[in-house]
Amino acid sequence: MADSTRTARLYWDRFVGPDHKWRRDPVTGGERTPPGEDLAALRAGLGRPAMDVPKLWPYYTSAVNDDLARRDQVSDEQQAEHAALTLFGLHQQSRNEPMHRQGVKLGQALLALRRTEKFSDEALDRRVATLAAATSVPALLVHLRGLVTQLRTVGQPLDYTHLMSDIQQWHSVDRRSAVRRKWALGYQAWKPESTDKNGA
Fold first, then answer.
1. How does 40-61 read in b/e, with b if 16+ C-beta sit within 10 Å?
2. Neighbours of 80 (CB within 10 A)
3. CATH T-level topology, domain 3-191
4. What's the chain look like in SS3?
5. CA distances from 90 to 15, 36, 147 (A)
6. Low-confidence ranges of the chain (pLDDT < 50)
7. Which residues fall within 8 angstroms of residue 162, CB to CB, at 6 or more apart?
8. What pLDDT score was predicted for residue 199?
9. pLDDT on residue 4
10. What is the pLDDT of residue 134?
11. Residue 164 contacts residue 171 (beta carbons within 8 Å)
12. How far apart are the C-alpha atoms of 146 and 87, rounded to whole Å?
């Protein structure tokens, strides 16, 4: 993802500081958290194409590709930002702590979800495998939506800048294997611990 096309700070970065806490409002000194109406606007885009929901337009930061715009098309980056925004709106809903955390990639977040034992290991493994096997971006987003809902349930944060990059790369069939490999390296870290309590 080229930073040279970024026109403004990504939405989640406006609120979460480098210490993974809410930023302080320079005027009031209190925590500056995403307003509920912002999160509602973001969720309005779930399952909808990028640029299809006017309430979401103020939150986009990706530069417009003039060549694509002339053909009434949006770029892969714009589509990825739209998807990440809507998933963040879902993830942050009703959570008091930030659900964006820099450095927590999807595989790592899903591993943390598995370790909570809140959901069946087998069912979660199947959901993650189905996600990784998605053959289109719309299918990927359907599976991500379900997993993000589970992450929200346990209060597990996720790096939305990384997720946006993963979604953007999923538009290219040639890049999907690299994204899958990254997810596998994060999620399959539980494998070496698959011994019983006696170390057998």
1. ebbbbbeeeebbebeebeebbb
2. 23
3. Peroxidase; domain 1 (1.10.520)
4. CCHHHECCCCHHHHCECCCCCEEECCCCCCEECCCHHHHHHHHCCCCCCCCCCHHHHHHCCECCCHHHHHCCCCCHHHHHHHHHHHHHHHHHCCCCCCCECCCCCHHHHHHHHHHCCCCCHHHHHHHHHHHHCCCCHHHHHHHHHHHHHHHHHHCCCECHHHHHHHHHHHCCHHHHHHHHHHHHHHHHHHHHHCCCCCCC
5. 16, 11, 11
6. 1-4, 195-200
7. 104, 105, 106
8. 44
9. 45
10. 97
11. no
12. 10
**Side chain identity, residue 77:** E
Closest CA to 148 of 190, 106, 98: 106
| Chain centre distance of CA 43 | 13
Give, in degrees to the nearest 5, the angle at Cα 108 between 102 and 132. Answer: 115
Give 61-76 as a 3 state SS string: CECCCHHHHHCCCCCH
Which residue is listed with tokens 């943390």?
Answer: 112
Helix pair angle (160-170, 173-187), 10° resolution: 140
- The confidence score (pLDDT) of residue 65 equals 84
- Taking CA atoms, 60 is separated from 21, 42, 69, 121, in Å, by 23, 10, 15, 36
User: What burial letters (b/e) apply to 11-22, b meaning 16+ CB within 10 Å?
Assistant: bbbebbeeeeeb
